Amino acid sequence: MGYGFTDEQLAAARSANLAEYFQKNGYDCELRRNELHVKGFGGFYVNADTNEWYCFSKSGKNGGRNAVNCLVEMLGMDWKTAVSELLGCSPVRSAVYDQHTSLPRVKRELSLPDRADTMRNVFAYLCQTRKIDGKLVEALAREGLLYQDKRGNAVFVHKDDNGQIVGAEIQGTNTYKRFKGVATGTSDSVFSFKIGEPDRAYVFESAIDLLSFKMLAKQDKIQNSVLVSMAGLKPNSLKSLSDKGFNLYSCVDNDEKGIKFTVDNRLIPCNRILSENNVKDFNELLQLITHNREIAAKKIQTENHAAPINEVKSTAMSKHSRR
Fold first, then answer.
1. How would DSSP label each residue in 74-117?
2. Burial 143-177 (b: 16+ CB within 10 A, else e)
3. Considering only 89-98, 120-129, 308-317, which range has the smallest mean pLDDT?
4. Contact predicate 12/100, CB 8 Å
């Protein structure tokens, strides 16, 4: 027994289904046959049948079938947090781990990442890299919906209708090493942004896409709505919205998984603009539009700067011709 866990729980955590964990917790994954590619980690793969994991960018240092070690080494979790995270997963359905298939699921207590004393990384990443309006980021921070943890990640806080914190979506701020996840104990809760008195919901895969949409949308068109991030594609997150009688509009990624999710859950498609601009999500669209605006502004600035010079040249030529 260690850190309050029984031997059975430790065994279950070590053999927990890694493919299930990464898929259900909002990581950018692609499953081909029996191999799950967890993107953003430099060649990180999990064998869905054997639970064997390996990261090519850290050759010789990382790999094996111990799920706890995987979360510690790849996600930087401490050992106790990794065990707690994995106790909510099913065991791998392999002959090696059949002895644990009857173990019950364990409900995890909510544990938010420790708050840092600064928001520097979050502001730099969201505003400079992702092109989110700084005033919007400031507003979220003031309302207690966003903070920076001690690892430099952006933490988007989930609150229920009573204002109680019930979970959190975590977004890494390192441009070169992508990381997405949720706080330990986060269940089917969502990150939400209310506008007026909601009678409909716009559903996203990430908080960053949600904020991008908020910036791009015509404000009168999204009055009396709630913007919701599921931190992935999680149909169970939609139940509370459906129970309130909201019309659900799908703003998920413009890819095969997103399209299937929209159809399977009978959502109203609201992302045609992504296809029209050949982008995957609303943040890519925001970055594209911002980039195009910057180019147009530079062009106008260059033309305005060149105009007085051309006028001087024209005047000089005119004087010379009169001579």
1. HH---HHHHHHHHTTSPBP-SGGGGGGTTPPP-PPPPBPPPBPS
2. eebbbbbebbbbbbbbbeeeeeebbbbbbbbeeee
3. 89-98
4. yes
Q: Quick one: which of 275, 167, 305 has its CA closest to 228?
A: 167
Give the tokens for residue 145. 């919906």
The closest alpha carbon to 165, from 142, 152, 150, 183, belongs to 183
* Closest C-alpha to 230, from 188, 183, 199: 188
Q: Where are the alpha helices (DSSP H) in 133-206?
A: 134-142
- Parallel/antiparallel/unpaired status of strands 63-64 and 200-204: unpaired
Give residue 216's identity as a one-letter amino acid code. L
Give the SS3 label for residue 240: helix
Residue 244: count of CB within 10 angstroms of its CB: 13
CA distance 219 to 196: 11
Alpha carbon distances (Å) from 252 to 132, 155, 243, 264, 301: 18, 20, 21, 13, 37
Please, which pLDDT band fits residue 38 given cuts at 50, 70 and 90?
confident
Q: How far apart are CA 322 and CA 74, in angstroms?
A: 78
Query: Residue 171 to residues 15, 45, 295, 316: CA-CA distances in angstroms?
Result: 26, 20, 29, 59
Asked if residue 281 has pLDDT above 60, the reply is yes
Task: Return d(Cα 113, Cα 181) in angstroms, integer.
Answer: 12
